[in-house]
Specification:
By secondary structure, the chain is an alpha+beta fold. The chain has three helices and eight strands. The chain has a single domain, classed as Alpha-Beta Complex (Nucleoside Triphosphate Pyrophosphohydrolase). The N terminus is likely disordered.
Length: 172
């Protein structure tokens, strides 16, 4: 067995995938909720990323429960119904320059279980301000067409967004 070295932390083969969920939140018109954030780990600090809600699965938590919790934490939406679930896990790898930087430096990427949810509330119910013990993830939000999603995704997440959009297209 080789001794542990700090460089092992930056080796994507050694680092695990972060288990998490992703949520495609659809309004009654079939539009998808996307939030805007400024990532800390890319060179252009003025850049924005538009993404669907996602987050980690806590120890002992079932993916479906994690998805309901995450959508409430990140969007404020509580009046939702789960209308779809991908039968497989999707994963992405961080690009080499983000290994050891993004995802608190502990993961090589994410392994995600995706859910589609119908938002049954009104836009006034959306609250991205954080609170309730959760820090704000987004500084703005909007409803997007499902076909916009792959174009909004970071390059290394594009395949995941394409798969999610294709799988859930009939729900929009």
């Amino acid at each position: 067995m080789q001794p542990f070295t700090p460089s092992a932390l930056a080796d994507p083969i050694v680092l695990p995938y972060r288990p998490c969920v992703g949520i495609m939140l659809l309004n009654r018109a079939g539009r998808v909720w996307v939030g805007r954030r400024r990532p800390k780990w890319i060179g252009d600090r003025s850049a924005f990323i538009w993404q669907m809600p996602q987050g980690g699965i806590e120890k002992g938590e079932e993916p479906r429960a994690a998805a309901v919790r995450e959508v409430a934490e990140e969007t404020g939406a509580r009046d939702v119904a789960v209308i779809g679930e991908l039968s497989r896990w999707l994963s992405y790898d961080l690009p080499p320059e983000l290994i050891g930087v993004a995802l608190k430096g502990r993961y090589r990427g994410q392994r995600q279980r995706w859910f589609a949810m119908r938002f049954l509330g009104s836009d006034a119910d959306i609250d991205i301000s954080g609170g309730r013990g959760h820090k704000a993830e987004f500084d703005d939000w909007r409803w997007a067409r499902i076909d916009e999603l792959p174009g909004l995704a970071l390059s290394f997440k594009k395949q995941v967004y394409e798969a999610v959009a294709a799988e859930f297209a009939e729900l929009a």
